[in-house]
Amino acid sequence: MMTGVLLFLITLCxxxxxxxxxxxxxxxxxxxxxxxxARGIRDRATIDAMRxxxxxxxxxxxxxxxxxxxxxxxxxxxxxxSQPFIVAYMTEIIEPKPEHRVLEIGTGSGYQAAVxxxxxxxxxxxxxIQQLGERAREVLxxxxxxxxxxxxxxxxxxxxxxxxxxxxxTAAAEYIPPPLVEQLREGGRMIIPVxxxxxxxxxxxxxxxxxxxxxxxxxxxxxxxxxxxADE
Length: 232
Ligand code: SAH
Fold this sequence. Notes:
With about 230 residues, this protein is α/β, with parallel strands linked by helices. About 35% of the residues lie in helices and about 25% in strands. It contains seven helices and nine strands; from the N terminus they run αααββαβαβαββαβββ. The strands form two sheets. The chain has a seven-stranded mixed sheet. Helix 2 runs antiparallel to helix 3. About 5% of the residues have low confidence. The site of S-adenosyl-L-homocysteine (SAH) has 23 residues, from strand 2, helix 5 and strand 4.
């Protein structure tokens, strides 16, 4: 009898605690401290965005508990949500400003688009897998009115909204798609993993000078899912 009452009281105490744990704010703070700041991300806006976006809402229910771990996670259709550090790194390197217009290729879960949307006024993102694009659009629409999702082959960019101050490509291309370079504004920056599928690729920074001259710089080795083509 006593044990029964005791168990009942314990349950009452545990339920609210569980509710608190569900919002993952402590996990997110720890992620920002140990994976983002400790590894050299300094841009205030990027750090604040990583602190704000509930990463666990961009993964499947079964992955929620893993959402803040230091690794990519599967999101279905053989695709992944990038590791938190990579998302922060790619955000910081484009030097995002509120008045910018940015294009992302590879919406996937929508998480990178959400991080960008915390900082930048207009975010355009393209996903080639219809089901992923639709799911991401649903999650993003509930939270943001400055993110536009298109389902298409991102190789061709998004001509109607070009030029872009920045382009973030989150799938590994064999080479830098020329239409994306064309749609980059003078003074703009593009970040893109370049290399063969299923091998280590190079994360490249592409900059277009004010005079239109384009230069590329290798930043670090990475592993991304492959950039797919609609007509191949
Ligand atoms: N930025 C994503 C990462 C997703 S992984 C996130 O934060 O979750 C890369 C995504 O790029 C995959 O969803 C894949 O389907 C998509 N992709 C691959 N090739 C593409 C292409 N040519 N155009 C648009 N999306 C592409």
